[in-house]
Design a protein that fits this description.
By secondary structure, this protein is an all-alpha fold. Helix content is 56%, strand content 2%. It has eleven helices and four strands, in the order H-H-H-H-H-H-E-E-H-H-H-H-E-E-H.
């Protein structure tokens, strides 16, 4: 299957935004070693894609809520059909169909963004002075030349951490500078990727289904770790796209999760190093209400006062303080020394 239509779409959005920044008056020449018109074009490519995918993201949150509500029923089916995988799978799918829940919806926004990522990777990789087809995908020669020379703090946006010295010399770049800029961006990319996954799990909790829980752990730890190696082959422009996308996701998830909060009975535990997370409800144990779990104070699940709960005040036995029947009343003023008048 040809991906030319994706390359054309990505190029069209980039060029439209670049023309818009030129019209606004963003200077085409480098300022602080950066061609801001092209950097802003990549940033607003992210915003354009995320606005288009926003309804899908809302459906993802609703699907995750439905999966959480079905967790007790799925667990009951697992106990009922233990050892009978075929029957368990059949009845689980029937339950999903009946309740209109789709376990694959949770990964749909990420899958839809993969073609955009691949398209940008291809478009930026071809920004080289020796490219024999500079005007492909709707680019003019002037636009291609301008983008080929675009830099972020003197590092070309088409350069990579793993680029050879010969490749960077063609772009007029210092290899050491490119490696420093690319390395810092890769670390930021890893950190923001981890935080987006952690934010979602902090708010929605670990899945009860073992397969879903495995996917959560893979997204929380596996994907950020893999970027340490794969990030070396990404052009700097693609890393800018990824970091911007992660920052947008953090803000979008915060808004959507407030608008569609987790079910009130959800008890979220399991994140290593984080406080126990609840939704403010009081779970019961043996008929007695227990104190509500601490609410997360942000992305890192911290509570106020470093997660420490205030010490409970000792109960006062009022019966022990009451006077016994037949006892003489105690005069509190008796025994106090009289105040002497001063002459």
């Amino acid at each position: 299957m040809s991906l030319d239509w994706i390359y054309w779409a990505i190029s069209w959005i980039l060029l439209i935004w670049h023309s818009a920044w030129d019209a606004i008056g963003v200077p085409a020449t480098a300022a602080l070693g950066t061609n801001w018109a092209w950097i802003l074009s990549i940033v607003f490519l992210v915003i354009t894609v995320r606005v288009i995918l926003f309804p899908v993201f809302v459906k993802q949150i609703k699907s995750q809520r439905a999966m959480q509500a079905l967790a007790p029923q799925i667990k009951a089916l697992q106990e009922k059909h233990k050892g009978d995988r075929e029957t368990l799978q059949k009845e689980t799918m029937e339950l999903y169909r009946k309740e209109k829940a789709n376990p694959l919806m949770g990964c749909l926004p990420m899958f839809l963004q993969i073609p955009v990522f691949l398209g940008l990777f291809h478009v930026l990789r071809r920004l080289s002075p020796d490219n024999p087809q500079p005007t492909i995908y709707g680019w003019t020669l002037d636009q291609f030349t301008s983008a080929s020379n675009a830099k972020l703090f003197t590092a070309p946006i088409s350069g990579r951490f793993g680029s050879s010295a010969a490749q960077l010399s063609e772009l007029g770049a210092n290899p050491t500078t490119v490696k420093i800029i690319a390395g810092v961006l890769v670390l930021i990319m890893m950190a923001t990727t981890y935080l987006t996954s952690r934010q979602m799990i902090l708010k929605t909790g670990w899945a009860q289904d073992p397969q879903q829980r495995m996917i959560q752990r893979l997204m929380l730890y596996g994907i950020p770790a893999s970027l340490l190696i794969s990030g070396s082959i990404f052009p700097i422009g693609v890393i800018i796209y990824w970091v911007t996308n992660n920052l947008f996701t953090l803000g979008q998830q915060q808004w959507v999760l407030r608008k569609y909060p987790p079910p009130p009975t959800t008890n979220l535990t399991g994140l290593p190093g984080s406080a126990r997370i609840g939704t403010g409800s009081r779970p019961t144990t043996g008929g007695k209400a227990t104190a509500p779990a601490a609410k997360p104070g942000g992305l890192f699940g911290r509570t106020k006062a470093n997660g420490a709960e205030p010490a409970a005040k000792p109960a006062i036995d009022t019966k022990a303080l009451a006077p016994k029947p037949g006892a003489k009343p105690v005069n509190p003023k008796k025994g106090r020394p009289a105040n002497k008048r001063q002459g």
